[in-house]
Amino acid sequence: xxxxxxxxxxxxxxxxxxxxxxxxxxxxxxxxxxxxxxxxxxxxxxxxxxxxxxxxxxxxxxxxxxxxxxxxxxxxxxxxxxxxxxxxxxxxxxxxxxxxxxxxxxxxxxxxxxxxxxxxxxxxxxxxxxxxxxxxxxxxxxxxxxxxxxxxxxxxxxxxxxxxxxxxxxxxxxxxxxxxxxxxxxxxxxxxxxxxxxxxxxxxxxxxxxxxxxxxxxxxxxxxxxxxxxxxxxxxxxxxxxxxxxxxxxxxxxxxxxxxxxxxxxxxxxxxxxxxxxxxxxxxxxxxxxxx
Length: 292
What we know:
46% helix, 5-stranded antiparallel β-sheet
């Protein structure tokens, strides 16, 4: 698998010819970078990566698999990588329709007690690695991707449901589960970044009472709704700053009424002022939006 990934490693964005499949090969350690983590799995083949989600610090080492069932603001950095032993990882965006189809076909399992968090790290199973490697092998035969790709992606998802992530994924897919309701609220927040956050309105979007909404939101994302919205806003502003260093314009575009408050919260999250960050991103290859 290391050989396949290194051979086909694309540009900084990690995009490959196989739909939903992303590759990452880095020969250097990175500084902590904030990104929005989509519903996905990420399997580390070599090296070490650390990710901060809310108050949870997750460490990905070789043969570990990270999975998320909901869009999550995350701060990540590669801790172990050099030219001789680069950081190597494979990411697959989760196809919810394909997962839902599999869940309906597989014999139902009783729900396990424990956390309902929308993300976790588990040891990768041999079956999952073999299925993922078969999907990667299509990069050697691009003419086969259209015909064989969907079936091999489905096998990866099937093996994922049989792994330690299975219970979390099944909970996220089941109709009426809290995770699905929280995803509706998250989608609304992403579409209305410049709007004031009204808890009652978000709870109504999720179809929950206000106390239930707060509890489920924190369980799934490890953040409060206000913390989540603030992080989304600052990430959106950062993307705007890649194209323009006008910090005031970026602040107002994502719903801030005070440029000074925006600057304080931006510096607290990213460790640098908006203007300096904009200059850094526009004058170097620092801005990388990699999935893995």
